[in-house]
Amino acid sequence: MPDPTGAAVALALKDVRAGYGGPDVLKGVSLEVPRGCIVTVVGPNGHGKSTLLRTVSGLTRLRGGRILALGAEIQDHAAHRRAAAGIAHVPQGDLLFPDMTVLENLRMGAYLERDAAQEKRRLDEVFALLPRLAERRTQVAASLSGGERRMVGIGRGLMAGGQVLMLDEPSLGLAPLVIEQIYEVIARLREQGRTILLVEENPARVAELSDVMHLFDDGEIVWSGAPDDLMNREELLATYLGG
Predict the structure, then answer these.
(1) How many C-beta atoms surround the C-beta of residue 72 within 10 A?
(2) What pTM was computed for the model?
(3) 29: left (phi > 0), else alpha (psi -120 to 50), else beta?
(4) How much is the CA Rg of the chain, to the nearest whole Å?
(5) 107 CB contacts (<8 Å, ≥6 apart)?
(6) For the chain, first and last CA: distance in Å?
(7) pLDDT value at 113 more than 90
(8) Residues 2-28, buried b or exposed e (16+ Cβ, 10 A)?
(9) Residue 55 near residue 25, CB atoms below 8 Å
(10) Which H or E element spans position 152?
C-alpha cells in the first residue's frame, strides 16, 4: 500500500468554496490525494460530496480557493482543460449516452486522445478489467443492467487516461451482490496503483480499500484520518451518519 504521507500529490484542494447561486455549498475544503492512493470522502447525502467532485472537474462554479493537479493550478481552467490535465470524473448515476453502444460510450471517454494506438491500449485494459463490457460491446447502453451501466461509467473514466479517477457513489441504487462486484473492480484498480478520489455514504463499504478517509458534513471536512480509526469511533459515526 502506498504511503499517503510520502507519495507525490496528484490532486490538492486548498480552501475551496463553491455553490450554485445561494450560500456556499463547499465551505473551505482542503484535502490532498497522493499518487497511487485511494482517498475517500464519506458523509450523509445532500451535504456537498457530489458538489466537491463537480467543482474539481469544473462543472460547478468555484467561488474561492485553489485546485492543483500534479502541482499545477487548474481552478481557472474550463472543464475540458481539467480533463486534459488528468482529472477523470465518473458522475453519480453514470450519465451514459443511452442510444450509443458500450464501445461508443467507452470511446467517448478518450475524446481528447489523438493517438489511436494509445486509445486501443486503454480499451484493451478496460476490457481486461471489465470482461463483461467486452461481451456487451455492441449492445446499446439503455439495454444494460444497472451494474453493467456502472461498469461502463467506470470504464469510460479509465479511457480518459487521467491521473486521478473520481468516483461519485459507485454503489448508489445497486443490489448488494452488484455492489460487491463494483467494489471488486475498485479493489483491482487499487492493486494497479490507480489514484482515486472516491465519494461514498457508507464508510464500512470502503474502509478496507481506502488509504485516507475524510468525514464530510454540511460542506466541510469534520474529521480526517486512517479508515480503522474512523471505524472505531462509534460516537462520531453515530453523530454524522446515524450509526
Answers:
(1) 10
(2) 0.92
(3) beta
(4) 17
(5) 119, 123, 159
(6) 28
(7) no
(8) bebeebebbbbbbebbbbeeeebbbbe
(9) no
(10) helix 146-159
Rounded distance between C-alpha atoms, residue 216 and residue 83, angstroms: 25
**How far are the Cα atoms of 53, 87, 153, 177 from residue 58, in angstroms, in the given order?**
9, 10, 18, 33
Residues 6+ apart with CB under 8 A from 81: 58, 74
Angle in degrees, CA 225, 219, 53, rounded to 5: 80
Rounded average pLDDT over 123-137: 95
Annotation: CATH topology of 1-86+203-243: Rossmann fold (3.40.50)
Q: Which has more pLDDT, 184 or 93?
A: 184
What are the domain boundaries of the chain? 1-86+203-243
SS3 211: coil
| Mean pLDDT value across the chain | 92
pLDDT band of residue 7 (cuts 50, 70, 90) is: low
Q: Do the bridges between strand 9-18 and strand 62-69 make them parallel or antiparallel, or are there none, so unpaired?
A: antiparallel
Phi and psi torsions of 4, nearest 5°: -60, -25
172 burial class (0-12, 13-18, 19+ CB within 10 angstroms)?
Answer: middle
Looking at residue 93, its pLDDT comes to 80
Instruction: Report pLDDT for 241.
Output: 83
Cell of 156: 469510460
Kindly state the average pLDDT of the residues 91-108. Answer: 92
- Cβ neighbors of 80 (< 8 A, separation 6 or more) are 112
